[in-house]
Each structure stands twice: as structure tokens, then as C-alpha cells.
Amino acid sequence: SSTPSQGLVRCHSHYHSTDWSNISAPDALIRQRKFSSWVRLSLLRSDFLENASLGLE
């Protein structure tokens, strides 16, 4: 099973392989903002899942 962090790494490498040069600046900023908020959500969710699974033990 894939852990949240594995998905994060996969998305992170995809993010860095994106060719930013052919994207207009405002669009790139919007994408970056969306990406960082998505990362924050994913980190929060994985923290929550870890804490939840610890609580179950």
C-alpha cells in the first residue's frame, strides 16, 4: 500500500519536472499556490492518519 508521503514525493517530482518557462507568470504563481496548499493539506492529513493509527494501538 502506498503511504501519503509516497504520493507526496511522486507529486513533488512531477511538480519539478513541469516546464515553468512556457507558463505565464500569473498562471505559474496560481499553480504554485495551489500546489503548496495541497502539500500542506496532505501533510496535515498524513499527520492525522499517523496520530489516528497510533491512537488505535
TrEMBL record:
It comes from the Eukaryota. This is Uncharacterized protein.
